[in-house]
Amino acid sequence: MNGSRSAGIEHLALIGVGLIGGSLARALRRAGAVSRITGFSINLPELEKAVELGVIDAHAKNAAETATGADMVVVAVPLGAMGSVFAEISPALANEAVVTDVGSVKRCVIQDARATLGRHWPRFVPAHPVAGTERSGVEASLAQLFDRHRVVLTPLADTDLRAVQRVAAMWESAGAIVERMSVDDHDRILAASSHLPHVLAYVLVQTLATHARRDDIFRLAAGGFADFTRIASSDPRMWHDIVLANRDAILTISERFGENVASLLSALRSGDSDRITAVFDGAKKVRDEFEAHRRKRGLGSSAPPPGARP
Amino acid sequence: MNGSRSAGIEHLALIGVGLIGGSLARALRRAGAVSRITGFSINLPELEKAVELGVIDAHAKNAAETATGADMVVVAVPLGAMGSVFAEISPALANEAVVTDVGSVKRCVIQDARATLGRHWPRFVPAHPVAGTERSGVEASLAQLFDRHRVVLTPLADTDLRAVQRVAAMWESAGAIVERMSVDDHDRILAASSHLPHVLAYVLVQTLATHARRDDIFRLAAGGFADFTRIASSDPRMWHDIVLANRDAILTISERFGENVASLLSALRSGDSDRITAVFDGAKKVRDEFEAHRRKRGLGSSAPPPGARP
After folding, report:
1. CA-CA distance, B137 to A250, in Å (whole number)?
2. CATH assignment of A9-182, among 3.40.50.720, 3.40.50.300, 3.40.630.40, 3.30.70.330
3. A265, B254: Cβ pair inside 8 Å?
4. What ipTM was assigned to the predicted interfaces of this complex?
5. Which of B142, B230, B260 sits opposite A306 (nearest CB)?
6. What is the pTM of this model?
7. CA–CA separation, B89 vs A31, rounded Å?
8. Of A231, A290, B28, B56, which has the fewest CB atoms closer than 10 Å, so is most exposed?
9. Range B185-296: architecture per CATH
10. Partner-chain residue, chosen from B260, B293, B305, that has the shortest CB–CB distance to A302
11. Gap between the Cα atoms of B149 and A306, Å rounded
């Protein structure tokens, strides 16, 4: 995993020093894969905290300054801010600088990068580390956040192969398993595995928060509810950008999900015991297999403390 | 919590020795609140395992036999089996025996008990320990499962007050916080806090399991997905019974949830940034408050290992 290729980064410029940017910096330091890290964030207290915690060596006064002279530039900002960051850093980039991102939707980031990076475009490598927690900010960052987690690269036909290799090596040094995928595949798959669940968690909490018996509901909610809704504590700004950027894929999978919900509720209404059993049995089987695979990959049982039932 | 009233159970008869029954037995032993525990389960290997693990002292050959001479009878079987268990034990019950259950829906259990328990009906106390995990079976049982968790009692107008007090004392000895509530309130509130989330988790897993890119989806699913779908690993038989028993309340809250999902998807379709932000911001705020309350109650952060993001 690590070590087979050295990331060998001289100067990493980190634009955005939150959970993901901060964790990447920590993981690369842990691996001895980077000599120097500078950073910038529009959130000044976060930026100062990042220096204080030793996550970055120095902070710059803007994105262009931090990117100047860097051989690797990682843009770890919400999707809606990617375009303006790319536009700002483009004139400051060194000739051989590799630029990459960590966005959860790839199509929109690629459009922004193509429109703004000019001659640096071929050395832009779209990337998505599929890992995180519901917490945000540099204080929540962890060196082990990416260990054994997937990072998806979605290079285009005209992406420089050496740039792809450098970004892959960086993420492997950070403990991740790197794979490649087409942009459309990535965005459709993540709509199903991540974006739809987040929408459902947010809307469920909204629904219960506006219920007449809201206080009773939350008092009697146990560990199962806590787990189910944990992702509704995720950063709303980040998720606003994600759902808007990937709306077509999200609408498509939501429609299929909605049909399946309607079908189950119709079975419930008519007392169709067999149909309910088939759905629950089938889902449990698949979910148990998923958990077994996670354990095999060393991702932990992620088992909650007691308290998840009815 | 404990100790203020002693449960003082001479002979506890446990019908159903799974996660909930087994955990109650362990918790009462921990508290020294019970002298002898006998048990019965139609699942013979589970029953033998319960003796082997010391969860029960002896097993009987049927429900009536185990209930014979017991001063406290706890029926911890799936909802669909409650009626037949009550009918079977009724002739064997001692004059002063208290009978209680652990079912996640109260209306149906009460109907069954009223129809079958005869002269013992006033000493039947409907109860629901709101705690558990997605695991099932006596091997998953834990003495601390109910610590600081709620147990809801829904006694009726003609329920014997001393019987209610004995069941309350038992659950307090087991570490729980006991509260009373009307049957309708209980069933409506649990439909929202527990039953709907389980339906959604099962149907989401079903939807992804039948997706053309199923393998990619599960490979790229991270901790957030694992948390969101954990409850889809719950016992399908138990949940089949719960959703059918509480279908009206589940249909009502599902309808409200469906309207809110439709509204968010419509905002997404039209790019209504403000509406999306309002929902996500509001939900995060409420979810964070819920988590803070859980921690204050000592229920643990229930924070997952790294890996819950996009």
Report:
1. 37
2. 3.40.50.720
3. yes
4. 0.91
5. B142
6. 0.91
7. 65
8. A290
9. Orthogonal Bundle (1.10)
10. B305
11. 9
